[in-house]
Amino acid sequence: MISLLSAKENAGRDVTEQPTLFRDLYLDQIMERVTEDWGPEVRTLFYALPKSQAEETYRRAIYGDIKKDEIYDALMEFEMSMRIWKQYGQHRERSLEELQKQVWHLREAQAYVTSLECLKEKLEKAKPSSQGLKALLEWIVGWTDRKEYRDFRAEVLSLWQELSGFRVMLTYERERFTIAEGKGTGKYDQFLSDCFPTHEKVFKSPFLGSEDFSNLEEELVRLFRKKHKDFFERLGHFDQRKFNCVPEEHKRLLTEAGYYLSYAKFQRKMEEEGFLFCAPKVSDCLSAKGVYDLALALTNLEKRQTVISNDAYLAPDESFFVLTGPNQGGKTTYARSLGQLVYFTKMGLDVPAEFAEVPYYQNLWTHFSVEESVETGRGKLLDELVRLKPMMQKGQTNCFVVINELFTTAANYDANVMGKRVLEYFIGEHCKGIYVTHLADLSKACEGVVSLRAGVDANLVQTYQIERSEAKELAGANRQVEKYRLTYEQLKERFA
Hints:
- It is a single chain.
- The chain is an alpha/beta fold and 496 residues long.
- Helices cover 50% and strands 13% of the residues.
- The protein has 18 helices and 12 strands.
- The protein has helices at 20-24, 27-34, 40-43, 53-66, 69-94, 98-126, 131-144, 147-164, 188-195, 215-227, 229-241, 248-272, 294-303, 331-346, 380-388, 412-428, 474-483, 488-495, and strands at 168-173, 176-181, 281-282, 286-291, 310-314, 320-324, 355-358, 364-368, 400-404, 432-436, 449-456, 462-468.
- The strands form 3 sheets. Strands 8-9-10-6-11-12 form a 6-stranded mixed β-sheet, with helices on both faces.
């Protein structure tokens, strides 16, 4: 059994709840837009991270193929055809007439075999290079070469051609219909609309549209049944066999293809708006140019506001960014952008950046400050420690960790001590990451820490640019003091 998510067999995913990192990195907002036309079956495929570097590489190769116009168009066309196939199945279930059920079943089968043949032809012409799409094409070729399928296809196309060839002549004169088999000069629905212009019914062929029959349509069917007994017997036999033309494996593969197609379609839309994406390269250092928060990009796109991008570089001998700076300076946004960079890299997809090199990380952990939970009754500090516990388990090595404003309810001394221990632990487990904090001392907590700072201009106004710089206590504080008129001169004037 092949999978488009992993080269290993039985690689299906059973994660149905959003992981914590989705909320922290605003991935929930992003994926809502990515999968808005695809449904929960595709959306949940984004919840589970690949289990190995080989799986990430496998997906990245498939996505590289799917980005090519000829393969993207072929798979999207097949996806749209299969949506129509599902609609036909829904019509069949709702139909009240047995004949209608049989016809909708035939339409299901005809839609599937023609779209599958078209996909096979286009994939063979496109010649995919990835292991996953090669396996998919091989599976399709093997399936369509089976005698059982070939016989089924021949029967479907024969019945469909005969059904589509039925024609009658309808004459309406002196408030009476005359029905005779043969070719008329117009279309059925147009004929009825001309005869009954004020009628509210939407007229359709009894074989190809309506889910129940009008009196006129019943007469048409009676005529066809009388003239083509052999056809209707064959149609009944075909319907009774209920051959499984779409195996469960193919339905699963169709869902997995939606994983790539949904993101590719989303990426194309964002690129049309001027946002850059790139395929990340595997490296021993984390390096990115023009990386940005994709969730913020979606928000600002609606507001027609500019998104500021940043760069990042973490050398192999460096472990953690410690990011300080003034409030509302873009620190959390920058941390999210790095988390999203690692996430999309691990998922085998393109990343929101101009250029990116990302090492392989075993896992991605996030811990963002949240409001105190009334439900747990534990208090904010204890809640933070409870959330930290699974991240600090043995075996969690070589992970990327995103921490935002930890221990804000503790005294500065205590927060420094606990923050230093957290950094030391993750660095000791060969993890990399970013720690956003208001505690400048943490930028010098231990070896491997790189100090970043959210920039301000000469007037102490945020620039939202993140640069390597020593942490400074006073720049942000001075701005707050001036904002609230608490400078020495201002206080002196007020108390005078």
